[in-house]
Write a structure and sequence with these properties.
The structure holds two protein chains of two kinds. Chain A is an alpha+beta fold. Helices cover 38% and strands 24% of the residues of chain A. In chain A, strands 3-2-1-6-5-4 form a six-stranded antiparallel sheet, sandwiched between helices. The longest helix of chain A is centred in the middle third of the chain and has 47 residues. Chain A is elongated, with a radius of gyration of 35 Å. Helix content of chain B is 39%, strand content 31%. Chain B contains four helices and six strands. In chain B, α1 packs parallel to α2. Chain B is globular, with a radius of gyration of 12 Å. The termini of chain B are far apart.
């Protein structure tokens, strides 16, 4: 049978727990949450001060967060060491009535701070699924007595509420961070895609291009520049993927635009780009580039190939030619590399297809590659359609081939055809 | 990405296995560049079934580092598809290339 005072105490404790859970529910940021937990723990358990040790899973140590008058540098404890370390290891509450009589107690902290620890109540903080999150430690029950068994029960209830709140705060923190990364990647993607032109020549030649990055950002690019009855066009592929490749791509594309301005031939542009890219290229990034210059009136194409997949020429007759492999190296490796021009005559109705190896190296779920044979067959099948359909048709065919598998590499296609005479 | 290592006389032979693409090239980079200080390094590519441009970059970095350290580097055992990737990028001339492990070792001991 309970006395009136016991009942009043029980109600007071329940109310304080309710207060705690309401206070903790309102706080989702970890640091202020820990302050609230410390303040409430000290208050509810009627202690002089309290400490939270958070468990660092990677380092397998406990690190302190202190409140009240014991403000000092963080303490790091190994599991099993000291009272808090023991609680973290055993996950059981420790109620120490006389700190100095307990061999686990380390009096160094008292010596450092001038605080006098009399008694300690210490309990584990766990997530709902039982993972160790840390330890909450209360020092010096106010008044003459030590911490009671009621305090012990109260601490357990308190710790389970606090544990869930800490776990949730950490999840929120991780989600916010990953959202932030995702958003900066989306911004980088938009910037990079914004660098690619969507304006294609309106007369003299039908031209279209498309690029699909394997990740948010990538190392492929294409470009075209119209200049006094001539059209410069290029496709390139930076080694590697991701942010590094994307930055190198942006530099390469900018260099192409700057170099093509006022240049007389693709080899000249390529040499200029290569010299700049090769300087101080400590990471050995390189970029394969095909650059061509089409005279819209005559159909003459001058081109240079810096280590890129040879493009196709699709004649009006239906004959498919592959521009032979270049001996010239990819850009960014040797400053003194020599690039040479080659010539090609496009007759009315003849077309070209430039691509990056993300197309031919697209993988099916059974690990087979899309390959050049399939690309050639698809291109032949599209011969009667306009170049925009070559690009769309091949992109769709690669996607069908990959059968939903995420692309391993960026895909780029650029197609053009002279109007039939 | 697995890399086997053994010695033929004074040359260290490293033999990457499998696919060298943008997923595995980081692992290869760490593993193989650790040997860039070897005076005689022989890279046996016979176990490499595929190499992407990200993989090529690792060998460019290796060539640069070996050269900086005053060592010698020979590549050997390239399959047809691997050789095509080196040829296509125009990088074959950058490397001392031998067909077989024996020829590679002989070139390094000369």
């Amino acid at each position: 049978m309970k006395t009136g005072e016991d009942e009043a105490g029980a109600v007071r404790r329940l109310n304080s727990l309710l207060e705690v859970s309401m206070a903790l529910a309102g706080e989702v940021d970890l640091d202020p949450l820990l302050s609230v937990i410390l303040a409430k723990a000290t208050d509810v358990m009627e202690a002089e001060t309290s400490t939270i040790f958070l468990y660092d899973e990677d380092a397998e140590v406990l690190r302190s967060h202190v409140s009240g008058q014991l403000a000092r540098d963080a303490v790091t404890l190994k599991l099993g060491v000291g009272i808090a370390g023991q609680v973290a290891k055993t996950l059981a509450v420790a109620n120490v009535p006389d700190a100095y009589a307990d061999p686990r107690f380390n009096p160094r902290y008292d010596r450092d701070t001038g605080f006098r620890t009399r008694n300690i109540l210490c309990g584990p903080l766990q997530s709902r699924d039982g993972r160790l999150l840390g330890v909450v430690q209360l020092l010096n029950k106010k008044g003459r007595s030590g911490f009671s068994t009621d305090d012990q029960a109260l601490l357990l209830a308190f710790a389970s509420i606090a544990g869930v709140a800490i776990d949730r705060a950490r999840l929120v923190e991780a989600a916010v961070e990953s959202k932030r990364i995702e958003e900066s990647l989306r911004l980088a993607h938009d910037i990079q895609m914004g660098m690619l032109t969507r304006r294609f020549p309106s007369q003299g030649v039908a031209m279209h291009a498309d690029l699909e990055p394997a990740r948010a950002v990538g190392g492929d690019f294409y470009d075209l520049l119209e200049q006094d009855g001539r059209v410069w066009f290029t496709v390139g592929d930076v080694s590697g993927k991701g942010m590094g490749a994307a930055l190198f791509m942006a530099i390469t594309l900018t260099l192409f635009r700057a170099s093509a301005e006022g240049a007389s031939s693709p080899a000249e542009v390529m040499s200029r780009m290569n010299r700049t890219l090769s300087r101080d290229n400590q990471r050995s990034m390189f970029v394969t580039v095909f650059i061509a210059l089409l005279d819209i009136e005559t159909g003459r194409v001058t081109f240079a190939n810096g280590g890129h997949n040879p493009p196709y020429v699709l004649r009006e007759s239906g004959v498919l030619e592959c521009l032979s492999y270049a001996a010239s190296p990819a850009l960014g490796v040797f400053e003194d590399a020599v690039y040479a021009n080659s010539d090609l005559a496009l007759l009315p109705g003849d077309g070209m297809l430039l691509y990056t190896d993300g197309v031919t190296e697209a993988k099916a779920p059974n690990e087979s590659f899309y390959g050049e044979a399939r690309l050639e067959a698809r291109l032949r099948g599209l011969a009667e359609s306009p170049p925009a359909d070559w690009v769309g048709g091949i992109m769709a065919d690669v996607a069908a081939f990959a059968a939903g598998a995420p692309p391993a590499d960026d895909l780029t296609l650029l197609a053009l055809r002279r109007p039939r005479g | 990405m697995e890399m086997r290592e053994h010695r033929i006389e004074t040359a260290l032979v490293v033999a990457p296995q499998g696919r060298v693409d943008s997923n595995s090239s980081g692992v290869l980079e760490t593993a193989i560049l650790g040997h860039a200080g070897e005076p005689r390094l022989l890279v046996d590519l016979s176990g490499v079934e595929y190499i992407s441009s990200a993989g090529l970059r690792v060998f460019l970095m290796l060539a640069r580092k070996v050269k900086e350290g005053g060592g010698r580097l020979v590549l050997c055992g390239m399959g047809a598809s691997v050789k095509q990737v080196f040829d296509l990028a125009g990088f074959t001339a950058l490397f001392a290339v031998e067909a077989t492990l024996e020829q590679g070792a002989a070139r390094l001991s000369s």
